Amino acid sequence: DTAVSQTPKYLVTQMGNDKSIKCEQNLGHDTMYWYKQDSKKFLKIMFSYNNKELIINETVPNRFSPKSPDKAHLNLHINSLELGDSAVYFCASSQRKQGAETQYFGPGTRLLVL
Amino acid sequence: KQEVTQIPAALSVPEGENLVLNCSFTDSAIYNLQWFRQDPGKGLTSLLLIQSSQREQTSGRLNASLDKSSGRSTLYIAASQPGDSATYLCAVRRYNTDKLIFGTGTRLQVFP
Q1: Which letter does DSSP use for residue A11 in this model?
Q2: How far off is chain B from A107, nearest CA to CA, in Å?
Q3: What Å distances lie between residue A86 and A10, A44, B29, CA to CA?
Q4: Three-state DSSP class for B48?
C-alpha cells in the first residue's frame, strides 16, 4: 500500500507548455507539501496546505499554482513551463499534533523541460 | 535566516565501519530535527526525529543526537552495510511553522 503517491513519475515536455502533477496520500494526514529538488540535490519547500488551506507559500513564481480539492490530495499546476523548472518535485504529508510530526514523502516526479 | 549544512558532502567507507554524519544549523530556535535517507531516484524516508527537548533518538543501528545550543546534530551509523549506501539529509523545523529546512546532504557509499 503506497502511503504518498505521485503521478506521473516522469514528465518530459516542451517549454511554454502547461502541466499538472498529482499527489494523493492515504495516511489520513491533514497537512500536505510540495518540495522542489534541484540539479544539485538541494531540497526546498514550495507550498503547504493544512485542511485544504494554504499555510506556506514560499517565493515561487505565480506560474506555479497548488490546488487541494480535499485533505488527501494536493495537485501542482505549472503554467508556461521554463527550462529552469526542470527538477524533481516531491509531495509529502504529515499530521499536525504536538510532538512528532514526521513528514512522509512520495517517490517524486522527475520533470524535464526541453 | 536558518541555514543547514552537512559535513562531509560525500563519504566512502568499507563495510563494518562505524560512521558519524554531521549536521549544523545557524538558528538554534528549532522545534525538531529530522534525519532522512534518500536512495537514488527515490523519495525520502524518515529515519529519526528528535524533538528540541530531547538529546538523542535511537533506531536499530542508527543513533541521532541533538545539541541545540551549539546548533549541531550527528547521525551515528554502527557497523555499516552496503545497504546503507544512500544520501542522508537532515532537516530542521522552527516553532509555529510546518516548514522543514533541509541540509545539503551527505552521500554515503559503503563498499563490501
Answers
A1: E
A2: 4
A3: 11, 14, 33
A4: strand
Residue of B100, B104, B107, B108 to mutate, testing the A interface (most A Cβ within 10 Å of its Cβ): B100
Question: Distance (Å, rounded) from C-alpha B14 to C-alpha B11?
Answer: 10
pLDDT at position A40, please?
A: 81
d(CA B61, CA B4) in angstroms, rounded, equals 24
**Residue type, position B11, single letter:** L
Contact between B14 and B111 (Cβ < 8 Å): yes
Q: Which of A89, A99, A86, A98 is nearest to A43 (CA)?
A: A89
Cβ-defined contact of B98 to A94 (cutoff 8 Å) = yes
* Residue A50 touches chain B, beta carbons under 8 Å: yes
Q: What is the pLDDT of residues B20-70, one digit of tens each?
A: 999 999 988 898 999 999 998 888 999 999 999 999 999 999 999 999 999
Distance CA A57, CA A46 (A): 6
Instruction: Write the CB contacts of A39 (distance below 8 Å, at least 6 apart in sequence).
Output: A86, A87
Q: Which residue has the cell 512520495?
A: A106
Contacts of A45 in chain B (CB under 8 A): 99-100
Question: How far is the alpha carbon of A67 from chain B, nearest alpha carbon, in Å?
Answer: 18
